[in-house]
Amino acid sequence: MLSNWLFAAFALLVLYGMHHYFWARAIRDLHLAKIWSRGAIILLSALGIGLITAFLVTRISSADGSGRLALPVWWWLGFLFYALLHLILADLWWLARRALRRENKLPDPPDPSRRVLFRRVAAGVGVGSSSALAWVGDRNASGEITTPEQEVRLERLPKSLEGFRIAQLSDVHIGPLLGASFLTHVVEKTNASKPDLIVITGDLVDGTPENLRHSIEPLFRLKARHGVHFVTGNHEYYSGAQPWIEYLKARGIIVLHNERVSIGQDRHSFDLAGIPDHMARGFGAPHAPDLERALAGRDPERELLLLAHQPIQIDTAAGKGVGLQLSGHTHGGQIWPFGALVLLAQPYLSGLNRHGDGTQVYVSRGTGFWGPPMRIGAPAEISNLILRT
To answer: Average pLDDT, stretch 275-302?
Structure first.
């Protein structure tokens, strides 16, 4: 509980710092007329408070469409990120130019209006280009979902399963912003690829089964010869993982909670294991990821695929005979250049990767989005994995 409060305090501090920097560089330093300056401050304050309110409201009510009125402030957060990036670059350029002048023992420009002009130009360029990027990101997030195909070679895969197709959904985030219509489209595109197996690698929902009962209904129209298998992500734990586990099981979804199943029949088969999210251990021992338990009694000669929400769980899988781990969580960065920050916490960002011991891990860029309704440089995907011998 204390850690949650500390995180909330840190998030509020960061949010305040972002808005304060924007005010300093895009309002105060422009020396606008008082009426424009006061109006801009009021609008900036309203947007900052709106972000906090939107987050709290969507946490309380996650029903389909409940967060759409908050879209402007979520859009503002994405715009603010790019605006700050432009303003920081302008500051760095100005400081570098000033340092160069001092190194060459040249005096600073005597006319202070030149600095004001520079600030106004920098703010204008920043606002204009950030608006364009936010618009593009919004179009990308609400546009067509890509369906990339990735061949994966597995040494222990039975030859009879050559060409076996797996459709992977991840980070769908059904909740206040993405509802039944979005999920219907996802299900139709997934079924159209005629997969042999469908897996969902966490962060399916943002809300409770009671609130999302209508929104999640299209999920149960997914069709695959070997069924639909699911593991929890971190957002399931924010929403109440156990009720979701029970709800999905009751509707025919196979939840792999430190468990393993056989896909196929007899020798024409492989093992599929699944473990809870990396941070689930904080929700009590029954939810702690336990790969040893999932693999107990397994024949090491059989091929093994693992579902684990976060790519960092490859460290647990390494050396355990896992031929391929399927993960999500990163969203591929979602908004460039956030991918660089993601890589500070995760070993891989997207696509097929080979870990140090040879274990392969495929990381989905995610099917939906979270936070600002934007995607730049990281298109949403329904991954199609084709197994080869």
So the answer is: 93
Beta strand 259-265 with 197-201: parallel, antiparallel or unpaired? unpaired
Q: Which helix (H) or strand (E) is 17 found in, with range?
A: helix 2-26
The region that residue 57 occupies, defined by phi over 0 for left and psi between -120 and 50 for alpha, beta otherwise, is: alpha
Mind listing the domains of the chain with CATH numbers? 2-142 (no CATH), 149-388 (3.60.21.10)
| φ, ψ of residue 27 in degrees (nearest 5) | -130, -65
- Selection from 186, 176, 172, 171 nearest residue 218 by Cα: 186
SS3 383: strand
> What pLDDT shows up at residue 289?
96
Backbone angles phi, psi at 193, to 5 degrees: -80, -5
Strand partners, 198: 167, 228
Residue from 201, 277, 287 nearest 243 by CA? 287
Contact between 86 and 130 (Cβ < 8 Å): yes
Prediction pTM value: 0.89
Structure token pair of residue 88: 């920081």
Q: What residue spans of 30-179 are helical by DSSP H?
A: 34-60, 71-103, 113-142
Between the alpha carbon of residue 175 and those of residues 92, 171, 369, 371, the distances in Å are 40, 11, 11, 12
Instruction: Retrieve residue 365's tokens.
Output: 């860029």
Confidence of residue 60 (pLDDT cuts 50, 70, 90): low
Between CA 152 and CA 155 the distance in angstroms is 10
Give 303's contacts (C-beta < 8 A, 6+ positions apart). 154, 155, 156, 157, 158, 270, 271, 323
What's residue 110's pLDDT? 60
